[in-house]
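Hi everyone, sorry if this is the wrong subforum. Our group has a chain we'd like a structural model of before ordering constructs, and none of us has done structure prediction before. Sequence below.
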Amino acid sequence: MKKTLTVLAVSVMMTMTAVPVWAQSSEAVGSEDALVETAAPKIIGETWIAPQGASLEEKVRVYLESNKQTLSLVGDDTKSIKITEQVTDAETGTQHVRLKQYIQGIPVFGADQTIHFDKQGNVSSYFGTTIPDATQQTAVALAPKISAEKAISIANKDTENIVGKLGSQQKEQTAELNIYPYKGQNLLVYVTEVNVLEPSPQRVHYFINADNGKIVNKYSLLDHATGTGVGVLGDTKSFTTTANGSSYTLQDTTRGNGIITYTSGNSQILPGTLLQDSDNVWTDPAAVDAHAYAGVVYDYYKNTFGRNSLDGNGLAIKSSVHYGNRYNNAFWNGVQIAYGDGDGSLFRAFSGDLDVIGHELTHAVTEHSAGLIYQGESGALNESISDIFGNTIQGTNWLIGDDIYTPSTPGDALRSMENPTLYNQPDHYSNLYRGSSDNGGVHTNSGINNKAFYLLAQGGTHHGVTVTGIGRTDAAKIFYKTLTLYLTPSSNFAAIRAAAIQAATDLYGAASTQVNSVKAAYGAVGVGSAPSPDTQAPSVPTGLASTGITQTSVSLSWNPSTDNTAVTGYDVYNGSQLAASVAGTNATVSGLSAGTAYTFTVKARDAAGNVSIASVGLTVTTTNSSDPDTQAPSVPTNLASTGKTQTSVSLSWNASTDNTAVTGYDVYNGSQLAASVTGTNATVSGLSAGTAYTFTVKAKDAAGNASAASSGLTVTTDTASSVQPWAAYVTYQVNDLVTYNGKTYKAIQGHTSLPGWEPAGVPALWSLVN
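Answer:
Right subforum, don't worry. Here is the predicted structure as tokens:
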């Protein structure tokens, strides 16, 4: 049975008051409540075996059909889900597919999904949101009653009513039709953005009802942050510029499509004037820091994750310093970043802090990957991820904004990842802010995820849960994959926990310390349960045997131990001395003396450091140089059939041991040599249908010694008469055989056949045998 976790949906997604455009209005605008009612995100975390030979598209389709009930999809709903992006992770060998739901060709806002494939091509996990019964809920044709131009006008008018006459738009305004889940209905809305600098910076997403022009929802994407800077504090740094005749400009053409730094000259004009200098010795501290630190951020993402700029495709990084007059803010407006100089009392120049620049530019990374909606829990995660990478790039402490905030107050900061409560942020989900200001607490509730990251990286005990720290480097790798591969726009705290666990599993393995620490870190902040401390030792290794002996070395093997979580390795002892530590169930101990007896034992260990009792000792005597090898390997045991067809039989057996080393096995069909292999399995083909065959196996070593034959195993191949013709409306199991148009096919996916699913035309369900 699939393990399915249904997560609470983002419940607070209302209009806000804390960001600039809402400073004068605390009420929802329009006659309809401003709520985003995305369905509950779902997580499926159990491996699903994909059809062999199927394309990625076919695997996705079969997976969605197989999980229709879990995903609340009915009828033809799976056809409404389209692949939008495919990514192969070169580091882990995994594949990741992003999808989106459409109704009548119109995208559904917030209905995004990700499906993840392991190295074997099987589905390892699913994350995302779908609109249940979408086809039936939207049975009539969708057609807007107002134009896109009208929707844009409504949005502009609303912003203008709040802040005054608008200046020019920073991006070309468009209005895209979306399906918007609202009060049990799927509303047809226009999604548009107001992005202006005058009379004050605004970047607001609007959702306009395409039927009546009412504002269904709006929220600001204009975030603010602070930090400290080296150049602003008087140090000297080097950076790349461009020679232009007899002068130089703040343009770095060596990174992506460029890093370009301007000055707004204390106006609200963006980007402003490209900065120039006659001797390439720059005396504007705010510009020096903005330009140099943008390069540091670019290099971090490029060198750490192989990401080419903020969008992964070389996006030019544009910055403007001296924005506004004593402006206490910095912001990313979807096109570029702007830095105020601060008022000198509450803030220094905002470009002076590397964690501020890292924070703001990471918003662009999020915008071009997970696209986390900037409201409620998803908005808090958006803010937290910017804090996480801004702080990681700077890497000096766990404070945000400590070097530019209240410069006359040492040690002050805007936020602390180590102790969010110092700055009125919750550090546990039980204290989640559930009000409507600040876009539903995006700058407040970010403290919960910040604390989880701090615990993951640094370790510690919080709310009675002890977390083993894994360091900033591993923690950041986990969160980068979480952001770029697993999260969807509507992801909430429960979703990021599950996504981080999956990302850690991809990188380090399911039984790793990193995975356990992710679980513990989120358990410590009240998101999911923390794993119980592991105090149980693995079972004692058994079957210790010698698989090879020379004058100076002994090769050993043993049966694997079991553990309540997972065995992570084995320690091999020569007497009381540790001789080797290995991850698998064999080892070679070298550096021994010829003709000498040694006694070996093995202990198993797990990730928590629990160690088993030592195995039964094995005494082995190394060979003398004059001793010829006349000892044959032991007889192979447990010969068994692992599969058969009309024309082949697959076999497996337990490994033999030898005084030196087993080099291979010979498989016999009666008295005839049928196969020679180096491992402990083989397939004998070219057989006749419905015929009994008796197989034996012999082991051999490098000296040519062969063991006695194993016990015989008699297997009868499948009969031709047992294979029935394919028919519709029949339930087939994996490995069932059918005939169709004179050929034999094998089922590779359990299913109930339907007309049109004939074996010759559906390689996702059937493979040709002969």
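For your construct planning: Residues 1-36, 224-231 have pLDDT under 50 and may be disordered. The first strand starts at residue 4 and ends at 6.
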